[in-house]
Each structure stands twice: as structure tokens, then as C-alpha cells.
Structure prediction request, 456 residues.
Amino acid sequence: MNLEIFKKYNRPGPRYTSYPPATFFQGGFTPAQYIEQIGISNYDKPQNISFYVHIPFCNRLCHFCGCTTGISQKEEVIRAYIDAIIKEIKTVAKYLDPNRKVSQIHWGGGTPNAINMSYLEEIMQVFHDNFNFVEKPEIAAECHPGELDFEDIDRMAAAGFNRISLGVQDFDPAILKLVNRIPSKRPVEDLVARMKANGFNGVNLDLIYGLPGQTRESFAENIRKVIEVSPDRLATFSYAHVPWVKSAQKILEKRGLPTPDEKLEMFLEGLNGLTSAGYVAIGMDHYAKADDDLSLALKNKTLHRNFQGYVTRETTGQVYGFGSSSITQLWGAYIQNVKTFKEYIEEISKNGLATDKAYVMTPENLVVREVITEIMCNGRMDFDEVGAQFGKDAEEIKRITQFTPEKLQELIDDQLVSIEGNTVNVHKEGFFVVRNIAMAFDPLLKTSDAMYSKTI
Ligand SMILES: C[S@@+](CC[C@H](N)C(=O)[O-])C[C@H]1O[C@@H](n2cnc3c(N)ncnc32)[C@H](O)[C@@H]1O
Ligand code: SF4
Prediction:
């Protein structure tokens, strides 16, 4: 992969974990409007149900963090937060069609394992008491290895969890110290071995490149270590520096952030090292073993994307979020809860729901989302095929996406993408600039949009 090409396309742009991006959500969405949308979701693409649970607490705040979280609170506050989540689950259960089954639950944060395991068990029980599940649901949690002990993994397995994503970020404790992060309590390889012994279907590790103190060599060492630990999946996230949103990130500027060139070298270390070791690259920042569901979905062109990133199961139109700041992702609307845990507890006590911002999709948005999802996930998009889904012809889809071939010309000249008739094909190297390709089909994107982080 050519370094110059990467540099050229290293521009700010949406990550397209949703379409339109969350920056388009508008405030003032009421619980009654949410209930109406839940009703619609029971018959508009009413496939299986997915849940997202947000735990907005961490025992120490990492200075690089871009997540919606805060420092852990006293036990009574955590208890009140858990009670609010339980109340929200029971409220939503009243409006969801009981014939629909739960196929996936994803716990994120913050740090789900920064609170007592008994809370996770309690909420899992509430889910089971209120919903029917498919035979093998996917129950996943993002865990901090600094807070995770062997017994916690055993308890999570007993509560039904079968996937854990471990936020390693960097194996070197000296780097973690520079970014104020708690190091792993146990060797990561031992935690992974314990998960595998418990029969977990998939283990994912997260790494970040672009942190202070990291170099090409140190990142290559991380990649060597990952290959040794041999997780099923790996995410190598480019550090997103957005100090205008996350003021704690300013501290890292003083510690000395790697240059864009150094970041690119780290990215390439990851790409070359991991693909040589047999991992399949999925989009810009994910890798999976060749026999993992994610790689198979890429091969079979059945990959999907939502706020949790690339996923194997079709979830568009069916993720219901619980907890502060969580986002419900329905076919026809995105709905986000109030941001802070304090507002959340208060709103839930009043209404049983805590909606704040939302975006209700227009018929045009649905078309653009389909086009962008095809590009981002499957690297191929056919105007006729998308048109057929919406009862329109190819020309109408081009008009809705405001697509003109000139928008892709630079990327075509660099052989990252090609157009054949009405089909757009992303080339292998093009997958690493796939956000830039997707941007050519986004009529809402303004060229001056600098509020997004850069691609790499
Ligand atoms: C909610 S955290 C995972 C669970 C746990 N809190 C932890 O840190 O291990 C989600 C992931 O987002 C990634 N992340 C956080 N801030 C980021 C940033 N500014 N840029 C890129 N990735 C980031 C990290 O890799 C982290 O593992
Ligand atoms: S532990 Fe995870 S969520 Fe918490 S501050 Fe660190 S990166 Fe952010």
C-alpha cells in the first residue's frame, strides 16, 4: 500500500457508523414519539431484536478517551442507574411485539466491568424475564483488562455472555502510564485463555495507534504480541484527536503526539503484520481470522455496520439502546437518550424513558444509507440493484445521492475504485480509504465539514 496515497486521502470525514451521522440528530424528541417509533419498528423491518446497554462509568479516565463516560460514582448512584436501566427495559418491553426474539445484546461504555458483576447478572435476568431469545444469541461486552479477573470471566460466561472485547490499547505499561490508563490486572494472554476455556465464541482485542510515546517500532511490537495471543478479532483504531469535544485530550498534545506520517507507518505495520499472519482486513480498522464470522460475512457480502462498527448480523432497524447517551437504531429513525447519567436517572423516574435527540429518516435518507452501507461493508454497489429495492431506477438513485462520476475521478485515477456500467467496485486497496469513497454518495456532506476526525 502506497504511503503517498494514504496521505492524500487522510481528510476529515464521517465514519458512517450511521447515516446520517449523529451530528444531524436534533434535540427535543419526546418519550411519546419514541413509543410511536417502537410501534412502527414492530412491522417495518421487524427482524430479530438487538439491544445495546451503556455503562457510563470508569474507575480512571484515560486522557485519549473519545467515549461517553465519566468517573465511577458511589455505590448508591450506580444502584440508582441500574434501577433506571431496569425500568427503561421494562417500559420498552411493553411496546415491543412479544413474538420478536432477541438475537444480540451488546454492552458498551464506559466500562461495563467497572461496576459489580452482580449488576450485569441482574440486568441479564431482566432481559430473560421480559423477552424471548433466539437459540444462540450473541451476548457481548466491552471490558477493560485493568478491571477484569479470571472469576469475572467465569461469572460473565455463566450469565450468558459469549463474546468479550478487551481494550488493550497498548501492551506497554509505560505508554499506558503516559495516557493515564490502568494497566491490565492479569497478562492479556491469560485472560484470553480463560475466555476460550469458558467457550467464548469470539475474543476481540482493541489497540490504538497514534498515542504519545508510540513509535513504528513499538507498534510493531504490539502487533507481534497480538499475533502471539491470537484473538479471533482485532481492532486497530486510529487515535481520534478531537480536543474541541474532549478537552482531556489536550493533555496529550503536551506529551507529544506522533506525526501523521508516523501514524501511517503504524497503520501499515498493523496491516502488513496482521495480513501476513493470516488475518483478513475488514474495512479500515478491523481484522479477523479467516474462519471468523466477520471474515465469512465479508466474503459472502453480508457484512453490516452500526454504531458498534462492523457486525455480522443484520441489525439496521432493530437496535434498542438502554442507558444514558445510548442510541436506538431503527429502520426509520435514530433516537438517542439524554447524555449524562444524572439526567438519565431523573428522566427515567418521571417517564420510564429518557429520549433526547433523534433523526427520523426521509425516504431519500433510506436510499442513501443503503448505497453507503453497500460501499462501506461490501465494497460493491449497483445502482440498479439498490433501485430495485426501493422501486426506483438507477438514474433516480444517482439523483438522490447527487452522484456524479467526477466526484470519484481522483479515486478512480488512483485505481482505488472503478465504475462499470451502473456498478461501483471498491478495489482491495480502496477499502482503506472507503470513507472517502462513501463520501462521494453523501448529499448531506459539505466539503467544509471539518468537525470529523481524519481518516487515519
Ligand atoms: C468503551 S471503550 C472499551 C472498554 C473499556 N472502557 C476500555 O477502555 O477498555 C471502546 C474503545 O474505543 C477506543 N477509543 C476510545 N477513545 C478513542 C479515541 N479517541 N480514538 C480512537 N479510539 C478510541 C478504545 O480502543 C476502546 O477500547
Ligand atoms: S476505560 Fe475506556 S471508556 Fe473509560 S476512559 Fe478509558 S478508554 Fe474511555
